[in-house]
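FAQ
Q: What does a multi-component entry look like?
A: The components come first, one per line:
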Amino acid sequence: MSPLEPCIALVGNPNCGKTALFNLLTGSRQKIANYAGVTVERKEGRLTSPAGRRMQVLDLPGAYSLHPRTPDEAVTCDYILGRLPGEVPPDLIVAVVDATNLSRHLRLVVALKRVGYPLVVALNMSDLARRRGVAVEPAALAEALGVPVVSTVGVRRDGAASLVEWLDAHFSIVRVAVEHVEPAEPDRGDVAATANDQREVERVLAAVGRLDPPIDTPSDRIDGIVLHPVFGPLILAVTLFLMFQAVFAGARPFMEALTALVAMVAGWINASIAPGLLRSLFVDGILAGAGSVVVFLPQIVLLFAFILVLEDSGYLPRAAFLLDRLMGGVGLSGRSFIPLLSSFACAIPGIMATRTIPNPRDRLVTILIAPLMTCSARLPVYTLLIGAFIPNRTLALGVGLQGLVLFVLYAVGLLSAFVAAFCLQFATGKRTLQPLQMELPSYHWPSLRNLGIGLWQRIEVFVRRVGTTILALMILLWFLSSVPAPPPGFTGPAIEWSLAGRLGSFLAHVFAPIGFNWEISIALVPGMAAREVAVGALGTVYSLAATGQDVAGALTPIVAQAWSLPTALSLLAWYVYAPQCLSTLAVIRRETGGWRHPLLVAGAMFLAAYIAAGVTYHVARWWLGAG
Amino acid sequence: MEAPSTLRPAARLTLTELPLLGEGLILGLSVQSDRVSADLPERLAELGFLPGARVRVLARALFGDPIAVRLGSGTFALRRFEADCITVQVLAPPVCGAT
Amino acid sequence: MLQRLIVTLVVVVALMQALRSLLPLRARVAVARWLQPRLPDRVIVWFAGQSACEACGGRVKPPSGQRTE
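Then the predicted structure of the entire assembly, as tokens:
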């Protein structure tokens, strides 16, 4: 950071739109959603104003006060109070407040003012406040508060214009004034002090002639149904169920098109390159490997579309509300719900999101069970096996059997997580009651722009992963499966003579009791890097093992032919628990600060996977044999 | 500690006991159980559950736990033991639907 | 012969890419240090990551202060 570049920090209550504003100011695309605690880390960006002034912009996690209770709040408080060694506190604080909820949000402004930093208030969501008839004039508020105020709209493209204008007009003056500010310690933070600040806020609001918020908003009326003790859980169950049905049924045409495309490219390569090492690399290594992972893109996009809509509409915290009793029953706080739900996308952001959990013990348990949530990387494995072994039948009421099985797999993961949490509760000893204190934000329509950006980012991440990690691993696997070349007298596929083939037949001894053949055993190894790699690995292995015919892009029929149903079910059970990808273990290590917990998780999940797969295999064999 | 379901002339309740959609005025915050961490009132105060604030119970989940409480123009979900820490005075009887 | 050369090259690049995306930062920097005299600077920067090393003067430095991003 250049010393000449002044630094401004966005501070405010959770879910007031700081990150939306940050994205507007800096042109970044940080994740935003309609619930508290999306941002758990400090994010940095750069702003160049129309006047050509450059400044650094920091986005900080939301905080209700300057007395942190959770790790993410501590990030904000330690930074603005100058408690981090070697860190320069910001030159200016932009206090972002929700204009529809001034009486709570302004209290933090009052506290910040007392700390003594140069301050500008951004009245965010000012469009919404106007629509609800509770808008206040920025000028009037500025006078009553004694702090400059601008109004902003985080979700509109030009929504930060007035803030940027203000920065251009006034910021250099501020910069001179700040040189010697030493942050004052905030008050003790007890109830009386908070009440004091609140009185100050009431005085300010009385001065600007604040209008009382309407008693019964549309949001409340929706909540009357969505949070209803009977209809609420029903709506939640139907929503989740529809989601999995749609993921399965909706993605099918796109997946078929992609499969055909991969097969076409393979055919084209076969026609234009002479048989040999190079052709094998392209067809068996790259297309059969990475190509068979690419075809799952449509499903992942659909799944994320659902998750993003749920996040953006404000429904997620409601779901947490409905499931809180269940979470409490296994000793978790409702705060654990959102990190766990994020783990449906990927365990890594889920584990990071546990920073919003105040109690360290709760946080640890949530981190430990997060890998049991069905992350999107498992989706290709599930889909491959379901597509190959579960008949595409419609049960009653248009419910597809395949979608139902997918739903069950997700449910088994969730249930296992609850069981694990329940057991861990005893391991971690007696506990105090855990508070919930979760904000339920107003509903709003998901913004198409936000949805589009979110989906595009997911596609980018997925394609980059396929193009880098997965592609590289597939090429390596292809290499290990092709050398050394078998001696002239060797009958059978060349892969059985290769390094990978030998490793596979060795591992097959370990996995034979749970029904895995040597091909699966090989695929499990690169699957440690990322779960979906296992699918690509199966593609490469079967492609090399198949003598003569090329198989790129059509893994499903091969698998359906080569495996018995018990083996397939056993592999599904394995992947419910599957020892996770290395990056998840690395994140657990970082968040828990040691190797103990990641090793514990890896060991426990490996054991659970082995047992579950074994039980499934033998039960299925016995049942099929008997029936 | 308040004895539940005895005479309540001033209609002094805990937030847990406030009827659905009824409105209440917060009188005070206190810790009611030793299983609750002592800074709970402070935290509730930071969210805005301060003496003098108006609250309204919007919803109760199955078995009455947790509850959704309207406070100013925000809504919070509280577990039962948290709502037990908040003493309220009943302001208005439950209203049905929109007003 | 040409085929073998291309295949070898592809496999080596794949190996580096795999190490690059799977190794934790510290191990990656250690590998980069070892590779440094053998490969051009640009490859080293790609491998270890722009933030992890400063390629100025042909030296790979370990990441300075741990900054959350």
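Q: Is there any commentary attached?
A: Sometimes. For this entry: Residues 1-9 of chain B have pLDDT under 50 and may be disordered.
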